Structure formats: structure tokens, C-alpha cells
Predict the structure.
Amino acid sequence: MDRSPLLSGLTYSAAVALIGTLLASLLMLGTGLSENSWLSVTLLIHGLALLVGGFVTGKRCESRGWYHGGLLGVAYTFIVWLIGFLAYDSSFTRELWMIAGLTLAAGAFGGMIGVNVKR
């Protein structure tokens, strides 16, 4: 079964975000880092997740990688917001807008790289 490029990118992004969150949690638990640094770690995890997801999306769609990667960033941000809204009744915060900008840029950049990689 051949999945859509966007669904494939979301799957890879979710996997990278899950692994990154687990590693960051273990690092914070083991080293006693303060939660003040959590925002920068979160931005790093989301950026890396969307770079990988955008790459997969761009490679599978084979054209307009920036568009499909950016669309992936928008979808990813919506899912993150939806989870936060349903679980914690949170609204749009400054941090979410930062994540939205980062995921849009990282997804578009990953999509451009994915389109231009030879098979």
C-alpha cells in the first residue's frame, strides 16, 4: 500500500519527535537539568523532526518540495496544538507560534533537500 507523501512525512516526524522527547527526558532525569532549558530542547526536537519529515515528504512527492514540506509543517503544528488543546486546554501561545514558524521553515527546507536527492 502506497501512502501519501504527507502521511509518510507525519509518521517519520512523529517517530523522530517521540525518540527525541524520550532522549531529552532521560537526559534531564539523569543530569538534573532545569526545566528552563526545555524550550530550546523542544524547538530542537521539533525542528529535527520536521527536517526529517520534510525530507521524506519531498522525496516521495518528487516536485515542489518546499510546498509539501511547508504543508507538513502546518499539519504538524495543528496536531501539536490540537493535542495541547484537548489535553491541557491550552490556546495559542508565544511558544506555539515559535514552533509553527520553525516547523514551517524546517519542513520546507527538508522538502527542498528531499526533492533534490537522487534515488
User: Anything to note?
Assistant: The mean pLDDT is 87. The CA atoms of residues 40 and 46 lie 10 Å apart. Helices lie at 5-31, 38-61, 65-88, 94-116.
